Amino acid sequence: MQRVAGEVFLSMDFAIQSACQPDGLHVGIIMDGNGRWAARRGLPRQAGHRAGARAVRTVVEAARRAGIGTLTLYAFSADNWARPEAEVAALMTLFRRALGKEAEHCAEQHIRLEVIGRRDRIARPLLLEIERAEERTAAGCRMLLRLAVDYSSRAALEAATRPVEFGSAEFGERLRRAVNARTAVETVDLVIRTGGEQRLSDFLLWEAAYAELFFTPRMWPDFEGEDLLAALRWFEARTRRFGGLEDRATASLVDS
Ligand code: IPE
Ligand code: IPE
Ligand code: MG
Question: What's residue 130's pLDDT?
Fold first, then answer.
């Protein structure tokens, strides 16, 4: 369960009363491999993205059950605009439909949903769906689910380090505003990447300073709750030293 902090963010962009601060493990997932999953089946890439959206529901459910505090899912990078127009359009439609459907489910499960990333390039219907989903789930305290859309960690870092623009706010606070996040989340403990590549692709670069990195060849649509638990077990066996000499282990999340 998350601790209730009753923190009030009095920023220019958001004046939001955050019901609770995320407490517990922060896991980020680079959900890669939809296209290759589809190609292997002789299907169009869009079919891979649809299968990927189904996998999201399963993994969110498993993360909630495992007691993860924050789950950040990388859904669309700022660089993904470079893809063919039809694929981008299909992805945006998928996000809009999925948000509409999942907001209710998240609210019932006390999951707070936030979308991080740029908003000025998002079409109005999706923007409205994002805002609706965030409002609908704002009271959720069981888990914070962040969906990164039009997200670039580099761009966020550049924006957050620009002088004066945000007055004397702390760096973490500037970064929060730079990605339009309502809730401040400054470190990620575990980054999982499906699809076999071993890179971060502009995801949580600052937050991942001491993150454990878990790469799996499994394509995202095939990633299931049990795979998440396997990654968590692997994480628990890591020795985390943060530059020191002692192992600062995390609390056990899953039965081994
Ligand atoms: C990840 O799957 C989804 C997005 C980046 C939107 P990809 O579409 O990158 O799938 P691959 O890497 O081509 O298989
Ligand atoms: C990273 O995947 C972005 C998301 C999963 C949303 P990409 O497929 O865009 O990454 P690269 O191009 O292989 O680095
Ligand atoms: Mg990819």
Answer: 98
